[in-house]
Amino acid sequence: MKNTAVLLLSCPDQRGLVAAIANFLLAHNANILHADQHQDGELKLFLMRVEWDLHGFALPLADFPAAFAPLAAQYRMTWRLAEAAHKPRMAVFVSKFDHCLADLLYRYQSGELHCEIPIILSNHEDTRWLAETYRLPYQHVPVSRDAKEEAERMQLAILHDRKVDFVVLARYMQVLSPRFIAHFPQRIINIHHSFLPAFHGAKPYHRAFERGVKLIGATSHYVTETLDDGPIIEQDVARISHRDTLDDLIHKGADLEKIVLSRAVKWHLDNRVLVYANKTVVFD
Amino acid sequence: MKNTAVLLLSCPDQRGLVAAIANFLLAHNANILHADQHQDGELKLFLMRVEWDLHGFALPLADFPAAFAPLAAQYRMTWRLAEAAHKPRMAVFVSKFDHCLADLLYRYQSGELHCEIPIILSNHEDTRWLAETYRLPYQHVPVSRDAKEEAERMQLAILHDRKVDFVVLARYMQVLSPRFIAHFPQRIINIHHSFLPAFHGAKPYHRAFERGVKLIGATSHYVTETLDDGPIIEQDVARISHRDTLDDLIHKGADLEKIVLSRAVKWHLDNRVLVYANKTVVFD
Amino acid sequence: MKNTAVLLLSCPDQRGLVAAIANFLLAHNANILHADQHQDGELKLFLMRVEWDLHGFALPLADFPAAFAPLAAQYRMTWRLAEAAHKPRMAVFVSKFDHCLADLLYRYQSGELHCEIPIILSNHEDTRWLAETYRLPYQHVPVSRDAKEEAERMQLAILHDRKVDFVVLARYMQVLSPRFIAHFPQRIINIHHSFLPAFHGAKPYHRAFERGVKLIGATSHYVTETLDDGPIIEQDVARISHRDTLDDLIHKGADLEKIVLSRAVKWHLDNRVLVYANKTVVFD
Amino acid sequence: MKNTAVLLLSCPDQRGLVAAIANFLLAHNANILHADQHQDGELKLFLMRVEWDLHGFALPLADFPAAFAPLAAQYRMTWRLAEAAHKPRMAVFVSKFDHCLADLLYRYQSGELHCEIPIILSNHEDTRWLAETYRLPYQHVPVSRDAKEEAERMQLAILHDRKVDFVVLARYMQVLSPRFIAHFPQRIINIHHSFLPAFHGAKPYHRAFERGVKLIGATSHYVTETLDDGPIIEQDVARISHRDTLDDLIHKGADLEKIVLSRAVKWHLDNRVLVYANKTVVFD
User: Predicted confidence band at A89 (pLDDT cuts at 50, 70, 90)?
Assistant: First the structure.
């Protein structure tokens, strides 16, 4: 597999942007493998993802920020650079339902998710067996209603200690505080078991069943201060009928949740997701 | 094509129901073509659709109510009988968007929808050309904010005059009053351009675009007093991406709306839909 | 959970069948929970699945065959009875790809698949770790081109020894001989990694990639003597684009295969599948 | 709406291509609105679609070919330029089934398809009413088995006379000769009523019904000399069950065919489709 670099950027739209970036890369002998851009016509915003082969690239990545700075300043870019060979460190939070965790760990082990998993954190002991199966560190941090802040402090300490880059909430049933979220802006991925914005909040399958919908959904999004309101990364649905009991909804939904969360995590790891205006661009 | 009868019924669940109904029909020499039942375990409700060949059936349909009454009373059934050969009279309400109307009329003309269309009613003149193309009666009833009640009175008079059995709102952009709806309980079918309960009310595509969803939807439901809250008959979704503008959403959504509404209308005409507890059973 | 019995039957269609079966069950005080029937109009065939609560059922299941025999003979029925409490014994065959096996085992362990797994058989050692994780017996039976018959003899001996009821081929990459298949008629479930009948046989993803299809598929079917030609239980598809490499197809396909195979296995276990005319009826 | 130009090109992949094209356009003061590229890693091919605003563009489009020629030669590009304001002239061929024609005409009339329709050609009279509804020219060219060549000569004369740019076969049930096809390379779009390559050739719904598939499909593709084998532009599927008769398949399939064909035609008109290696790239 080639080692590649990915540049994700956004800036006010303006003439000559594509040429400027392509010329910068060419000047350092980059072989562009993918270049994808998007304009938001209403916000006059330019968003781009460009990936190039590092073989033959004449600029050491450590020197990239300094070399790119003038161009970035000229066009007022927000940007980040990622090296494909680098494996981000992902923490997984889980409660009692283990289907999403099991799915993520299987994909991790099979090489589908290009990351490290330095820690699995749970407010219960139920999923420890899965961590042990895959020989991954697991820590039980109980969360009681009265000592939530203390629990979050402990969680943050662990994440810091384990040098965690981003967090995946794999059906973690506790609401995180704004204080916690502020430590990982656009770096906490949640799976919500409904087609947002329908049935945000608690017990979505119960409410979907009661409402008599004909499709159920799942949504993966970045966590923001407002519950279930962050930028949506991926959604999908499955058909149900009057024959499906609440239990059937929960079972069929579990399969959706796994697929939708794993896609979102994979795209995040592949540096395909750019957030703006509480939405995502997912470059494909 | 065979002429058939369809019996739709619901009652408290109890032992012997299937046998009792089958025996009643057999006693009159019915050849059952389809029998489908559903139990709602929570509500202890039994729901059934049974269809039989009228060829050889020994009981004239006019005598069915009297003959079936004792059984219906014994099991406390709510029931209705439909003869497949009978064509219900469907009114279509429309405003300016004509895609759903055009789709319904094409399906009507091609024989896919087994109904009569004695009247198309609109608060605008824009879609008259379609009615003329298919040689169907069209009436323009303007609806102003101040004279809504009067407009509804006129609409009701027309529906009564045309002996209309049920009403389809094919992107009709006026909210009907509870007084109007009471004349057609479970006999007004609406298409809402979102995946309900998400984005109920006005401008769903605008709000879907703003929220950054990855799928858009459409929902067909029976109209009740509460806006966009009636029993859902059918829903479907289509994938969108960050590349889709608001206009793209509206275009892709139009294709969804046509399909979802036409399915709901077809199932209603085929006597496949039973309403209970603000949900539908759609027998397949 | 209620203990229930399921009766699956097919016979020439004729008047009075539903009543006859309902009366037979009622005579033994059955409380019917689900009854679903299907007529094949062309073949004049009647197919039915009926499930009833065993609580209060007056006929011991051991006596069912004798008691039901006269009715079955009168209507020339093919039928089988299953008790929901009974757990069929399922063998899983696997080669090197482990995603379907991992998915089945996770579902088995979580209680979603109501069966025993007395043996996992493989022509390789690669997936032993999964069997060990779930503490299930695993046996390696090498299959060489020259000694296939001998390998099958050994496999059959193991299946016999383990009292296996049916076999699931979870991406097992060897073609089974007609002789082997004859031991498990309509009791071997395969997953083929294409939308059959497209790309039957070897290397379907390679051929799909080459053909430039816009959707890939997976098909689960009962195995018959003709390769990839048996009765289809379930199929599904996923969208791809020109951006997807052959490797992407293989990865996206793996997710499809898991879902499609697990649905087919679950329906088989729930006694929902009836085979006739090289097709399946899947009662829902 | 902005007037834009679209450049579609393919060439051997090589360093500096993106920069070279961006610089060429920038030199003439182009404001790039979309730029999308694709590399086929195996064939070492570079494919690109770039769209820019013609407002402020300093190079008259008539002079584009001469100005672009040196760059095109240097990189050995195959390319074509389209002006969005230009409406291609589309002929529609149809036989007796009218659902695809009706759908295309409705979309044409509503402004969704940016084209002219100078002629509708049919080997029957059945669909003339639709042409008349939309006030479009219709010509009946009978095709008999013995005089096919003559019929095609007449069709070609009409297409030539009407200055037709491309042809849509909207369920046209005659096979076109290689001689005919050679006049419109990659400019004849067909809708086939199956999920190709499954059920290519005649009577696909009959064969799908017989095979017992669980999904039916439709495929839109460019026509080549080999029947149903040309580059696929779009495919989609719909779920069916054992309850669906052959007639149900045909009805459900009709809805698929309309959607799939209209998407393909729209993408063709938007200059989004590039053909290579008997596949398509559909830029989104």
Answer: very high
- In a 3-state reduction of DSSP, which class is residue D116? strand
Write down the catalytic residue from C103, C161, C228, C248: C228
Asked whether the bond before D197 is cis by omega within 30 degrees of 0, the reply is yes
Give the orientation angle of helix A99-109 with respect to helix A246-269, to 10 degrees: 40
List the single residue in D with minimal CA-CA distance to B259: D255
For residue C34, which residues of chain B lie inside 8 Å, CB to CB? 37, 39
Give dist(CA D164, CA D160) in Å, integer.
Answer: 6
Residue C1's pLDDT is what? 63
Alpha helices, DSSP H, located in chain B: 17-27, 64-74, 99-109, 128-133, 148-161, 178-181, 204-211, 246-269
**Chain A / chain C CB contacts < 8 angstroms:** 19
Q: Which domains does chain D have, with CATH numbers?
A: 4-83 (3.30.70.260), 89-282 (3.40.50.170)
Which residue in C265, C251, C190, C261 sits closest to C224, CA to CA? C190
Average pLDDT, integer, range C60-85:
97
Compute the half-sphere exposure of residue D51: CA atoms within 13 Å on the CB side of its CA. 18
What strands, in cross-sheet order, belong to the sheet with B31-40?
Answer: B78-83, B4-12, B45-53, B31-40, C31-40, C45-53, C4-12, C78-83
Whose CA is closest to A56, among D71, D21, D16?
D16
Q: B91: helix, coil or strand?
A: strand
Question: Chain C residue closest to D246 (CA)?
Answer: C42
Q: Strand, helix or coil at D270?
A: coil
Q: Please state the φ and ψ torsions of residue B217, each to the nearest 5 degrees.
A: -140, 175
* DSSP bridge partners of D11: D46
| Residues of chain D where predicted confidence (pLDDT) is lower than 70 | 1
| D interface residues, C as partner, C-beta within 8 Å | 38, 41, 195-199, 211-215, 217, 231-237, 241-243, 245, 277-282, 284
- When CB atoms are compared, the residue of D18, D30, D34 closest to A22 is D18
Task: Name the band, by pLDDT with cuts 50, 70 and 90, for residue A34.
Answer: confident
pLDDT the model gives residue B1? 63
CB contact under 8 A, D26 and A37: no
* Cβ within 8 Å of residue A179, ≥6 positions away: A149, A152
**pLDDT tens digits for range D108-119:** 999 999 999 999
Q: What DSSP designation does D209 have?
A: H
Q: Which residues pair with C157 in a beta bridge?
A: none
Interface with C, mutate which of B7, B14, B18, B52 (most C CBs under 10 A) = B18
Contact D76, D14 (CB under 8 A): no
pLDDT band at residue C248 under the 50/70/90 scheme: very high
Q: Do A255 and C259 touch (CB under 8 A)?
A: yes
Residues of B whose CB is below 8 A from C26: 15-16, 19
pLDDT digits (tens, 9 = 90+) for B33-53: 888 999 888 899 999 999 999
Which residues have C-beta within 8 Å of that of residue B51, sequence separation ≥ 6?
B4, B5, B6, B7, B32, B33, B34, B35, B84
Q: How far apart are CA C219 and CA A250, in angstroms?
A: 24
* CB pairs C-D closer than 8 Å: 81
Partner-chain contact D29 A35, CB within 8 Å: no
Report yes or no for ipTM above 0.85: yes
**Element (H or E) spanning A156, and its range?**
helix A148-161
Residue C71: list chain B partners with CB under 8 A: none
d(CA C218, CA D212): 15
Residues of D in contact with B255 (CB under 8 A): 259
- Residue of C98, C243, C284 with shortest CB distance to A243: C284
Q: What value does the mean pLDDT take over residues C255-283?
A: 97
- Pick from C38, C196, C214: which is nearest to D242 by CB? C38
